[in-house]
Write a structure and sequence with these properties.
Layout lengths: L1 H17 L4 H8 L3 H10 L5 H21 L4 H16 L2 H4 L4 H18 L19 H20 L1 H4 L2 H4 L4 H7 L4 H10 L1 H14 L5 H22 L4 H10 L5
């Protein structure tokens, strides 16, 4: 019954997010821990090191989709990337034994390295600009069915894949589909915001033993939003990268 209720809750949140038409705004919302909060609160799972590690799996999910899309249809690429995500989630059985603080330092180091070298700027940008996407009624039905099914399955297997069940990009699979020609932009944006979600989990982790879950989550959201604001203010994109984004999104709604 818990899986059903969570499936409905996550599905409802994703359908609301899906109504956003602007690719830029979708990329921003994608970085917010909305489905994560729903699942954590619904299951009563406490934040741990596997949630931090699973953020890497989210980046790999999108990057693997981009690689697979070079040779395969986008739906097939997303499906394979989803399966790979679940299998890599099995590594959490080992990650859970690592202290949270140690995992945070390791993840922070990776994030710092990423924003310093920005590796994806070496790839050629997509040639087609992002466009506004208008959902039809059937699209909402399909999305609802997919999200509900994935939530039910992943939450049911949370004992095996641990944190990966919480961080799976439920809204991301559709964002990836819509932005299939701008995937590197999405990967870079989510990677830049990586620290904000890390701080979200860290806040919950350090507060959950002292205050009620509700208060811990409110504080975590405040820290997350502040982190996002600081990231976008003090970590501007490289000039070359900024020009690419401006060109790609000059016609986006």
């Amino acid at each position: 019954m818990q899986e059903v209720l969570l499936g409905l809750a996550v599905t409802a949140s994703i359908l609301v997010i899906s109504s956003v038409k602007s690719p830029k705004l979708r990329a921003a919302i994608y970085s917010l821990p909305i489905p994560i909060s729903v699942i954590l609160l619904g299951t009563g799972i406490t934040a741990n090191s596997t949630h931090l590690f699973s953020l890497i799996l989210v980046i790999l999910f999108m990057f693997n989709t981009w690689l697979l899309y070079k040779k395969l249809p986008i739906i097939v690429a997303i499906a394979i990337a989803t399966v790979l995500y679940a299998f890599m989630g099995l590594l959490n059985q080992y990650i859970v034994k690592i202290p949270f603080a140690h995992t945070y330092v390791a993840m922070f180091s990776l994030w710092l390295l990423w924003v310093t070298i920005q590796p994806l700027t070496f790839y050629k940008a997509a040639s087609s600009p992002a466009v506004a996407y208008k959902l039809q009624f059937k699209d909402y039905i399909i999305r609802g069915a997919v999200v509900f099914s994935l939530t039910y399955i992943l939450v049911g297997f949370r004992g095996l894949i641990l944190g990966a069940a919480v961080t799976f990009p439920f809204n991301g699979i559709f964002t990836v589909y819509i932005m299939k020609d701008q995937l590197l932009f999405l990967v870079n944006e989510v990677a830049r915001n990586f620290l904000a979600i890390m701080n979200f989990f860290a806040t919950i982790y350090f507060l959950q033993t002292f205050v009620p879950n509700g208060i811990a989550f409110v504080c975590a959201w405040v820290v997350c939003v502040i982190s996002l604001v600081l990231i976008h203010k003090y970590l501007p994109r490289k000039q070359k990268e900024q020009k690419i984004y401006e060109r790609e999104y000059s016609t986006a709604a």
